[in-house]
Structures are given as structure tokens and as C-alpha cells.
Amino acid sequence: MPISELLAAPTVDAYTLTGDRVVATAAAFVALAGALLGGLALARPTKRNATWTSAVALAAGGIGIVAGALVVATADGGPGTGNGIVGGYAALGLGLTAALLGGIALARTRRAG
């Protein structure tokens, strides 16, 4: 058996849900929810629950960053291999956005209060 066949990552169908894809997709959705909550907390800073909303956005961003980084770090191949690499990078980007928006909103509400 040639070495190139041994080193090649096995590909899966585009619609096959692997464990890594599920984790990456869940992390991306959590991070997306955090980004939406962070944007909401920035848009309505005078609301009574702006501190709670911004803290939840910050926590969801942290979860997205950690889970996305774990998926990306443990991936054996690139896109199309079933390792969830695309969802991992999406979770990283959305998690960073959620953490940034949540942090800014939390700082704004603490300064205003």
C-alpha cells in the first residue's frame, strides 16, 4: 500500500453528521446566540437586565471560543473530512465576536451604573 493512501484523510459525505461536526455546530450556535445577546445589550444599554444579558453573551462567547479551539486543534484533516473544522472556525469567530460585544456592553453598564 502506498504511503500516500495511508496519509490521506478519509472523506465522508457532505450530509453525514459526525461527532465533531455536531460539537462544532453546537458551539457555533451557542456563540451566535452570544453575539446576538451582546448586540442586544449594546443596542439597549438602559434596560434593567443589560448586565445579565452582557454577562451571558460573554459566557457564551467563551464557550464558543473554547469548544471551537478544541475542535480545530483535534481535527485530522481539512474541510470535507468530517472533523468539523469549518464549524470550529465559525465557532471561534462568532465566539470572539460575542465575547467582545459582551465585554463592551458589560463595561458600559458598569460605568453607567
General description of the model:
With 113 residues, the chain is mainly α. It is 73% helix and 0% strand. It is built from 4 helices and no strands. Helix 2 (19-43) runs antiparallel to helix 3, helix 2 runs parallel beside helix 4 (85-112) and helix 3 packs antiparallel against helix 4 (85-112). The termini are far apart.
Please tag this protein with its features:
mainly alpha; 0% strand; single chain; 113 residues
The ordered string of helix (H) and strand (E) elements is HHHH
Strand content: under 5%
Intertermini distance = 69 Å
Molecular shape = elongated
Largest sheet: none
Q: Give the % helix.
A: over 70%
* Poorly predicted runs of 5 or more residues: none
In round numbers, the mean pLDDT is 84
Radius of gyration over all CA atoms, rounded: 18 Å
Query: From the helix content, strand content and strand pairing, which structural class follows?
Result: mainly alpha
Number of strands: 0
State the gist of this model.
This protein has helices at residues 3-7, 19-43, 50-74, 85-112.
List the helices and strands and how they pair.
Elements: H1 3-7, H2 19-43, H3 50-74, H4 85-112
